[in-house]
Amino acid sequence: MNTLLSSISGQFGKMILLGTLFPVLIVSILNVLLVAPILPFGPAIQNQLRRIAIGEDKWSAVALLFVVLVITGVLYNLNIPIIRVYEGYPWQHSYLGEAFSKRKKERFNEAIPLRQAVRCLRQDLIRIDPNDTVAQSLQADQTALALFINSELPDREEFVLPTRLGNVIRCFERYSYVAYGIDAIVLWPRFMGKIDSAFAATIDEAKTSLDFMINLSFLCALSGLTVATCGLFSRTYFSIPSVFFWVWRAFLFLSLSALFYAFAIGRAKAWGEQVKAAFDLYRFNVLNALGYLQQPQTPFEEKALWLRITAQLLYADSRLAPVPYKGTATHLAATPIGVQLIVDRHLRPAAAGGNLEVELVLKNKDQRSAQGIVLSETVPDGFKVLLGSPRTSAGTMFVSNMAPLEMNLDKVLPQTTTKVTYTLKPSLA
């Protein structure tokens, strides 16, 4: 997923310059100032750098520039693997990863019930006294919990990763699926073609800020470990001053690494907000670009639509009923989302003069029961639904609205068919 989200505005050079080259230069300068003087060949390095700085050795300057560019190129191409290490993917099943994940999962399992308990307690207090000050303070706690759950934790426990950064990124990676039923991995390449260049630039700028912090953290950690290793294997006489001589430098680099990692979490959240906004703003543009002219009427119906489109894009040879390109008079929603429930609509004249009989045939082609079914019918101009005419051939049904007509069915069993009928009559009749 990170690979897909890396760059969409075409500002390739800017991303390398700010996100990769600057960290290389910053950490290189820190190493020259702090590490080079204590190395056996440190004075020679500093003397050579002085000659390059005043222009005495141009070939060495070219060689140094070449080394910096090579390190920058290598670091840029390792960007995704480095981020995945910080997220915890390569080591999540290790002993350390399992321990970290366990703690994060405990927080996940504590946060969800706690948010519900705070909500219920606040409602009870407001019911007793609308001006209760405790209820007002609980509102702030409820909001903080909601923000924590929706910005730092994925939607399901099995998606929890060992690190905070990994959970922040996975949280916004799952956002499009949780909110709209959009599989980001499948549909993001289609979004890239519809996102405005100005908005795409803001996404890339947020990603560049994250890269800047992650690369600084990685290079500082690498420097700290290198200094610690050199100090451990140095041939200096063992004493507290000689140990401190190396330790404070290693500690400084490792502390900077931790600090930049903390900054990276905030940058990841900012990047995630931009990615989430792209799904919010451009999903209907992508829907139309794919050729679908229909507009879902409810969030529930939209999720079902995107799930069917995703399956169709993933499995071109699927035998499932394809999504119609144009909207119909009938809108259907059911749970679980993605259940293969289709509807055929038939219209024929009724026995009474001018009336029309509408028959909706619901076919459940899934192995699961379709439940909580909502059928919405657009009543054509010049007609109205005959009161008491909506009926179903199986189960129970109630009408929740007459214009537009909205009918609620309890369920349709797997591999079965249910008929719903109603009568339209002319408005003047």
The CATH topology of one domain comes to Immunoglobulin-like
Query: What is the alpha-carbon Rg in Å?
Result: 31 Å
Q: What are the secondary-structure elements, in order, as H or E?
A: HHHHHHHHHHHHHEEEEEEEEE
Distance between the termini: 59 Å
- Class by alpha and beta content: alpha+beta
CATH class of one domain: Mainly Beta
- CATH A-level architecture of one domain: Sandwich
Task: Provide a short characterization of the protein structure.
By secondary structure, the chain is α+β, with helices and mostly antiparallel strands. The protein contains 13 helices and nine strands.
Give your account of this protein's structure.
The mean pLDDT is 85. This protein has a domain at 329-426: Sandwich (Immunoglobulin-like), CATH 2.60.40. Helix 2 crosses helix 4 (58-77) and helix 2 (12-34) runs parallel beside helix 11 (197-233). Helices cover 58% and strands 14% of the residues. Strand 7 (397-402) and strand 8 (405-412) form a beta hairpin. The chain is elongated. Strands 2, 3, 5, 6 and 9 form a 5-stranded antiparallel beta sheet that branches. A 4-stranded antiparallel beta sheet has the order 1-4-8-7. With 429 residues, the chain is of the alpha+beta class. The protein contains 13 helices and 9 strands.
